[in-house]
């Protein structure tokens, strides 16, 4: 992987001759390879479970799964019913709730349904405990009975701010699901059934229905990725082909580019299928990214070929020269790009591993097809170009002269501006909010925001408190510890609702004392408390037991804390405060868990992992550049334009946005692998001029601009356009990642066209080889440009 010397140039020339001679055989072999690789695509299966974002070793996932095994699962759909008249406790609305509750039991995989209608209300009648639905036969209720039900619901901590809001204008039905996890369409089945029920309610009653919950979140991931594949991929194809045609001005070259893109995608996705990689919302972006990156290799070969045709070379001579000039740079840039994406394996999020691996395989495919199939195809297809100097080439010459004349101001200005922009990097804070992963075109986000603003919180925090012995939850000492924790939680500003068995004990104690409000407190006798609990459990209907609050041996209880919408920093803070308060005040050790907490910690874990990943990629890429360019000094110099764009992009991000989430944490390694391409191409042409043509630094800069400047412009425009399309994704992780990557590429082209040549002129004033310090005439320079 060395820069072409004379012997290497001869080898690549012979390789180009071989490609042209056996072009039909090469094309057939390339097509068969693409079909064989692409056939693995049939093994790719979608995975829309939110748990896929977490590795099996993730401590928050392990803690969450442990509590899920102990109590009833919390995967749910919350149906929020908002009456148009603002009164949830009326005959029609309660009838709607009653109907929806009954039908919710029939939804696929439904395990439990809770609403104000089937809430197990308890009252005392002499020595008997009566347990019954709070609302029965709503249409037959009197206004007085409705008012009594409303008063009871608003007074009940189990219902208030979770299934009915403070002014009783919105009510909810919470459906808990037990997914068997045997099919990939389980969540869509449940969601489609819930949506059908919601549509039925809206058509029959004067209500608006909103759906949220973890099952809706899982489905939203799936819908976002499918939406992207249905809209962004066709848009990408169109934009890339149009830009390629406009910049290359050749139908044949555009067709060749299209086929290389298609074969590269087939290779990346097919090999992913063979490897057992699943399609997730982040990894689904691989198709778009491969499409974007596959163009770069093709463009460098095509632009050089078209330039040769414009200089009067025959088609085969132009192809031979293009392969000779671009073989090693294309090889090196493809390898470094693949390394950048493979660094994503250091992430704590498996879908990002898949994204990196799929893209790396696609980039490898693009390398193979652009150096085999594309030249062979171009030797077959008719390609014409007028013998002339292109406007782009003239502008590249002007750019070279500008940099040479103003190298000192450019260096000084670059340093000052870079320092100023980099100073905003500390403005970035590690914060995340998985609701913001979706834009407003995704109903999950708009519905969840309505629920958060009008009914209850959308995040849940779960604690499991261990009493230390069987039936220990009835021990008054333990109950008082539990109660003190609950009281502390309800005082926290982030908390919207707390579900606890303690409230049930208080209500039963009151009931068993003739509903005397003075006895709404925890029972003081452990045997009485156990008897109350047993009596209550025996009275509960099937499906509404206490398994969501107590384990089988009644040695521990679950506290479910519903939280307002907030960022990951606040989520981690409230979870850690709760753990610390328990430890300091009760001696109980329990950690807050739940999907929201899992997402809250993932950004920080990803940042840590990607620091190692980026550093590893940086070391490998730097060593490759030094070896390939055969210059430690130039290789070291290349680090500046390679690292600076990502740093400046984060500085700009810190100034305008300032929030670094899970997507942003992935950008550094990706950007490093992508932006290094243009640097390598520029340096390879610069050193070719120095070593093969004996030019001095200024002449070599002119040569580099003349030979590769247009290709760098074309590839950068296509890359930026490609990631700009991906930035329109409805899935926030993909859109933010694409936006920051496009910004890095834009900054990189400025660095490669201004800072890099200015640095070369500054530190490489003497020739690499002792010879050729002489100045060439304009005619000699033109001849050298044409020959190279």
Automatic annotation (TrEMBL):
Lineage: Bacteria, Pseudomonadati, Pseudomonadota, Gammaproteobacteria, Alteromonadales
Source organism (scientific name): Thalassomonas viridans
Membrane disposition: Multi-pass membrane protein
Protein name in UniProt: MMPL family transporter
A molecular function (GO) term: transmembrane transporter activity
Sorted UniProt keywords: Cell membrane, Membrane, Transmembrane, Transmembrane helix
Ranges for domain SSD: 255-380, 634-762
Parts of the chain that traverse the membrane: 24-44, 229-248, 255-277, 289-309, 330-346, 366-387, 609-629, 636-656, 662-683, 703-724, 736-761
Domain of life: Bacteria
A Pfam family this chain is assigned to: MMPL
GO CC annotation: plasma membrane
Compartments in which it is found: Cell membrane
Main localization of the protein described in the UniProt heading: membrane
Entry-linked InterPro entries: Acrflvin-R, MMPL_dom, Mycobact_MmpL, SSD
